[in-house]
Amino acid sequence: MKAIVRATLAAVCALGAASIEGCARLADYARVVEANRIYDRSDYQGAIAVYLRTGRAAFPATVDYDVANAYARLGEYAAASELYTAAALEGDGSIAADARFNEGVALFERDRYEESWKAFRASLARVDPESAFARDARRNLELAWRAWKKSGLAAPQGIAAAARGAPERDESELRLLQRLETGRWRPGISPSAASGASDY
Q1: What is the DSSP letter of 154?
Q2: H helix or E strand, kind and range, residue 47
C-alpha cells in the first residue's frame, strides 16, 4: 500500500513540476508577444527591456534574434551582430537563415564586408534557392562582394574554388548569381560547352 501511495505522490509531483514549467514557458511566451508589440510601436529600448525579462531557457534563439533586431534598429550593430550569431547557432532552419541574413546586414553597416559576405552565404545555404528570400540574399551577397572588393582588402574567393580549398582569381560566383537572377542559367549546361558549339 505504501508503495502505491509513493508512486502516486511521485506522479502528482511530476505533473505539478511539468505544469509549473509549462506555466513559466507560457509566461515567457506572453512576454515575447508583449515585447513584439512594443517593438512594432518603434519603442526599441522598451522592447529590449521586456525581451530581457523573458526566461532564456524557453526561447533562446527567438529572444536573441528579437533583441538583435531591436539593437540593429537603434544602430547598435556590434551588439546586434553578436546576438544574430547566437540566434543562428541556437535556432532552427528558418530563424537561423533570418539571423544570418540580418547579421550580414549588420556587418555590412559596420563596413565588415568579408564577414557580411560570409553571413549572406550561410543564409543562402539554409533556404530554398528559388524563394524571394534567396533572391534578396543573393542581391545582398553581391553588394557585400562588390564592397569587399572596393575596400582594398583581400579579394573574395569563389564558392566553387573555396569549396575545393583553391583560390580563384575571377568573379565566377558573381557571374553565376547574375545568371541565376536573370534566368539565363540552366542546370547541367557548362559555360564552356555552350560557347564551344560547332554551329557558330
Answers
A1: S
A2: helix 44-53
Q: Is the pLDDT score of 165 beyond 50? A: no
103-95-68-106 Cα dihedral, nearest 10 degrees = 10
55 and 28 Cβ atoms separated by less than 8 Å: yes
| Domain extents in the chain | 9-58, 77-183
Does the domain at residues 77-183 carry the CATH identifier 3.40.1350?
Answer: no
Report the half-sphere exposure of 136 (CA within 13 A, side-chain side).
12
User: How confident is the model over 104-141, as pLDDT tens digits?
Assistant: 999 998 999 999 999 999 999 888 888 899 999 999 99
Let me know how long the chain is: 200
| Helical pair 60-73 and 77-90, crossing angle rounded to 10 deg | 160
Rounded CA separation 82/105 (Å): 12
Contacts of 80 (CB under 8 A, 6+ apart): 68, 69, 71, 72, 102, 103, 106
Amino acid at 147: A
Q: Give the angle 13-18-21 at the CA atoms, nearest 5°.
A: 125
